[in-house]
Amino acid sequence: ESKKSGRNCSTLFQDEMATEAAELLKLERDISSAIFKDEFFFVLQPLVSSVTMEVTSAEALIRWQRDDTVVPPNQFIPFLEESALIIDVGEKMLSKVCEFLAQMKSEKRLPNSFKIAVNISGKQLSEVNFIEKVTNVLRKYQIAGHYLEFEITESVALDNLKDTIKKINELKQIGISFSLDDFGTGYSSLSHLKDLPVDKLKIDRSFINDINVDKQDENLVKSIIQLAVNLGIVTVAEGVETVQQVNWLKENGNMLLQGYYFSRPILPNDFIEKYLAPSTEPLE
Ligand code: C2E
Ligand code: MG
Ligand code: MG
Ligand code: MG
Questions:
Q1: How far apart are CA 62 and CA 93, in angstroms?
Q2: CA of 239 to the centre of ligand 3 (A)
Q3: Is ipTM > 0.95 here?
Q4: Ligand 1 in reach of 181 Cβ (< 6 A)
Q5: Of 100, 156, 140, which Cα lies nearest the Cα of 276?
Q6: What is the DSSP letter of 202?
Q7: What is the Cα–Cα distance from 279 to 95, expressed in whole angstroms?
Q8: Is 48 or 24 the better-scoring residue by pLDDT?
């Protein structure tokens, strides 16, 4: 103790930095081996219609089983993005989702109108053979494209707008729909939205948060909903946590709601049990 308190600030700071660097190094090493050990899995969170209150689709969210703990994506996705490992991991995720869709289909728990949305990194989308990879995995699991939705963010889309638009349109031709994630947090939301052929627009949860708290945010959400209506795009409100938010959103439009109020992301098999009882809808 006395020895430690006697040391000067810069030494302490250096120690801390050294520890942090060591932890980062270990994290990076663990992430690479996690890919080989197949320690990534996904959970599903439902999207609910504000009109019928029925579950229409789900978002697949990646998790990492690191020893005894489940690590959330914000703690490893940035590393994957930096190192381009995100391409391998993203591909694997898509394959797992398609495999699960095939399982749902064989169990007769896959309604025709159901979709699973997968988050796609910009690095994946800008790969030259991305479309080929997607087509291959769909073929491998005998899954039609309309069961998939791809969530992209504005920054992804804007990296190479022309190429992105071309790819989105090609993937839409095979039935895959697109949704623009975290809308409102990007820098040039409005100007590029009209160029992007997306089907859905997900209002970032930071705006949903302050419904019933901040009139300005409420007005902003109203304008985004109006914007989507004008463009013929479906609105999704993400991060819906309270009944007050649900009621406000229901009053302000026909949209999809997603958030802890309805369900946290859960394991795929639990999702089936909870939301897709056999014979709720015409099945394929
Ligand atoms: P996102 O795509 O915007 O996903 C929504 C995030 O909000 C998820 O966090 C979800 O668990 C969380 N969330 C849902 N409802 C609520 C709520 O009511 N309140 C609050 N506070 N949070 C809520 P998660 O699972 O930690 O994922 C974080 C981000 O990681 C995602 O944001 C997405 O950008 C990225 N991500 C997740 N899975 C993948 C993946 O497979 N590939 C890629 N490239 N990125 C992924
Ligand atoms: Mg998303
Ligand atoms: Mg989002
Ligand atoms: Mg988000």
A1: 7
A2: 8
A3: yes
A4: yes
A5: 100
A6: E
A7: 26
A8: 48
Q: What atom of ligand 1 comes closest to residue 77's alpha carbon?
A: 45
Residues in the chain: 284
Supply the residue whose CA is at minimum distance from atom 27 of ligand 1: 73
Angle in degrees, 0-180, between the axes of helices 130-141 and 85-106, rounded to the nearest 10: 30
How does pLDDT run across 37-91, given as a tens digit for each residue? 999 999 999 999 999 999 999 999 999 999 999 999 999 999 899 888 999 999 9
Atom number of ligand 1 nearest to Cα 121? 44
Ligand nearest to the CA of 45: 1
Question: Which of 240, 280, 247 is CA-nearest to residue 264?
Answer: 240
d(CA 51, CA 208): 18
Region of 237 please: left (phi>0), alpha (psi -120 to 50) or beta.
beta
User: 122 in ligand 1 pocket by Cβ < 6 Å?
Assistant: no
* Number of C-beta neighbours around residue 136 at 10 A: 13
Alpha carbons 258 and 241: distance in angstroms, whole number: 9
State which amino acid sits at residue 114. F
